[in-house]
Design brief:
It is a single chain. The N and C termini lie far apart (35 Å). This protein is mainly beta and 197 residues long. It is globular and about 40 Å long. It has helices at 58-70, 167-171, and strands spanning 32-38, 44-52, 76-77, 80-82, 86-89, 127-130, 143-146, 159-165, 189-196. Helices cover 9% and strands 24% of the residues. Strand 1 and strand 2 (44-52) form a beta hairpin.
């Protein structure tokens, strides 16, 4: 089995504090992922909207859209959330809310891994990237949303989009234990993920 990690927790000191809001961010041509977030008890926390970059990472965007349309992301937890860095989700194999999520972060979908689609887009607050293992060509279904600029990821992870609405909801997602590399107990989850073309 593989563990999909972004970076060791020791490197988190490289992240800078982020400013409130997302100035200058506009919704592009999409498609958009609309994610309804709920806490572990099922209480709604709000909605976040991600504008996906089909022009920058067509294969990865196609995968996210396909999984969302299949309902595969519904009920998937935010298994790794590191304050001042990012919130990670998308493990459709091991990350379903209400089940045993002890292995969340180690799985993917039943589709093959994707070849990296690196671009010149920098990882800033709200940037959406694909999680992967050591191999650049191992992204599958998991993705993360940056809570702060993370330019040390530039050119190493595929950027698939940008958060365009719901910054407050994203920042309210339950944080994980920093000593456990962001692992979250009783995590928030994606109650419903819809695609808006």
């Amino acid at each position: 089995m593989r563990k999909l990690l972004l970076i060791p927790a020791a490197l988190l000191a490289a992240t800078a504090a982020y400013a409130e809001g997302l100035p200058g961010v506009t919704d592009g041509p999409g498609p958009n992922l609309v994610i309804e977030v709920a806490d572990a008890s099922g209480a709604p926390k709000g909605t976040i909207t991600l504008d996906l970059y089909a022009d920058k990472a067509p294969n990865h965007v196609e995968r996210l859209v396909m999984l969302a349309k299949q309902g595969a992301y519904d009920g998937v937890v935010f298994h790794r959330v590191i304050d001042g860095f990012m919130a990670q989700t998308g493990d459709v194999q091991y990350g379903k809310q209400g089940g045993d999520t002890a292995m969340a972060g180690m799985g993917g979908s039943d589709m093959p891994d994707l070849k990296a689609e690196f671009s010149d887009v920098s990882f800033q607050q709200g940037t959406v990237g694909m999680a992967r293992s050591q191999s650049p060509d191992s992204a599958n279904s998991q993705f993360f949303i940056d809570l702060a600029p993370a330019t040390f990821l530039d050119g190493q992870y595929t950027v698939v989009g940008q958060l365009v609405d719901g910054w407050d909801v994203l920042n309210a997602i339950k944080k994980g234990d920093a000593a456990a590399n962001g692992a979250v107990t009783q995590p928030d989850y994606m109650a419903k993920v819809s695609v808006v073309e």
